[in-house]
From TrEMBL:
Alphabetic keyword roster: Glycosyltransferase, Membrane, Transferase, Transmembrane, Transmembrane helix
A cellular component term, taken from the record's GO annotations: membrane
Lineage start: Eukaryota, Viridiplantae, Chlorophyta, core chlorophytes, Chlorophyceae
Domain Hydroxyproline O-arabinosyltransferase-like: start-end pairs: 69-345
Localization per Swiss-Prot or TrEMBL: Membrane
GO molecular function: glycosyltransferase activity
Species this protein is from: Gonium pectorale
Protein name per UniProt: Hydroxyproline O-arabinosyltransferase-like domain-containing protein
Thylakoid as UniProt keyword: no
Main location: membrane
Keyword flag Membrane: yes
Transmembrane segments: none
Membrane topology: Single-pass membrane protein
Length: 393
């Protein structure tokens, strides 16, 4: 159970005036230099639409072209385990929806020294971590992500049956599946994968340009997308080319004190973006409400075209300046909440005009309906989750 190539299966029963450092803080905390997440995280579009993509060779057509194998990385701490169980639970729910049969594979890539409690619940590949201390706690757990994905891909090279879809969908722990992702035909040369645009990733920001030039060898920063390694729908062949560059660039940033300081919590996301540019990989970078992957409440008020919701920020309702309801993932870090996930409190009903969020902006009726749908979907998954309390390691 300690080798990195083992595969565990379970039968399915930001605006340009914002500094980079301030913008990265928004990803972690939801506010930027006194600005709210709403005022900072606006959608500006992306110039990254013009590179030549590649298709999978004809002899590798083992799966229908519109099938998807989903992957995500995790360090196995209880904070991430709580989120991972909900994400996988809602994934199984949407598999039962029309189009869910196209979600044909799923792998949690666990970068951890030893197996954890979720091995028998979520299909898991265990990678040997670069930073074993992250098994308990570390200040930048995603530092292991590129290396862990590489280990998984090397295992796939040895056993191609580990991949069960024509596309690879890279995810994060804190997603809620609301409906299946719909993929184009991977074997169509005109079909292009897609990813999500994060406005706080700003490669052309004046303070970022010197670092981008240093890391990329001086390529035009307009070629570097404002995205990250999740969510991304990409062909396996393209991912195989991007991952070594992603890993190399992430390591180069970690070795550069100034780059770490400047790029802060989103530095590994920049490594992904530069790697895409260096490999000339075509991905359409999409923004809500037209993103086919995620929407991010409370910044985004509707699901739009998205298949999933990303709850990176908390959503706190206030009435007359008094908190009346909250959804905040940082409230769920204890082992007992990860191993026996509690039902989550639903937003108060019915919606009332005058409610405000923690940043003072109104709780609109459409946002309230979105939050009600999201928490309701999470509770549907929680209701059928096994109690893993006795499995604690």
């Amino acid at each position: 159970m300690e080798t990195a190539d083992m595969f565990y299966k379970t039968p399915v029963t930001s605006p340009s005036s914002v500094t980079l450092k301030d913008a990265s803080a928004s990803a972690a905390g939801g506010k930027v230099a006194g600005k709210t997440i709403h005022s900072v995280l606006t959608s500006n579009g992306s110039p990254y639409q013009n590179f030549q993509g590649r298709i999978m060779p004809k002899e590798s057509k083992k799966h229908p072209g519109d099938t998807i194998h989903s992957i995500f990385t995790c360090g196995g701490d209880y904070y991430q385990d709580f989120q991972s169980r909900i994400m996988y639970g809602t994934y199984k729910l949407v598999q039962q929806m029309p189009g869910g049969d196209k979600l044909t594979g799923f792998t949690r890539i666990l970068h951890r020294m030893k197996p954890d409690e979720l091995m028998n619940e979520i299909p898991t590949f265990r990678a040997n971590p670069l930073h074993p201390k992250c098994d308990e706690w570390c200040d930048f757990p995603v530092a292991d992500r590129p290396n862990a994905v590489r280990q998984w891909m090397e295992a796939v090279d040895r056993d191609p049956s580990m991949v069960k879809g024509a596309w690879i969908l890279l995810l994060e722990c804190d997603y809620v599946w609301m409906r299946p992702v719909q993929a184009p035909d991977a074997y169509d040369a005109k079909a292009v994968g897609f990813q999500f645009m994060f406005d706080y990733i700003q490669p052309s920001h004046p303070t970022a340009v010197p670092i981008m030039n240093k890391l990329s060898g001086g390529i035009d920063t307009a070629r570097i997308p404002s995205s990250g390694p999740a969510p991304v729908l990409i062909r396996f062949t393209d991912l195989k080319g991007v991952v070594p560059e992603w890993e190399r660039l992430a390591a180069a940033i970690e070795a550069d004190e100034q780059a770490v300081k400047q790029l802060d919590w989103v530095r590994e996301m920049y490594a992904w973006d530069i790697a895409l540019a260096l490999r000339n990989v075509t991905l359409v970078t999409e923004t809500p409400p037209h993103s086919r992957l995620i929407a991010q409440p409370p910044h985004d008020l509707t699901l739009g075209d998205a298949a999933m919701l990303h709850y990176t920020w908390g959503t706190l309702y206030h009435e007359n300046k008094k908190e009346i309801w909250r959804w905040e993932k940082r409230d769920y870090t204890a082992p007992e909440k990860a191993l026996k996930v509690p039902m989550l409190p639903m937003p108060p009903q019915p919606w009332k005009q005058g409610w405000t969020l923690q940043d003072g902006l109104p709780v609109t009726k459409e946002l309230h309906e979105l939050m009600t749908a999201m928490i309701g979907q999470m509770n549907k998954a929680i209701a059928i989750m096994p109690d893993l309390s006795s499995a604690r390691v």
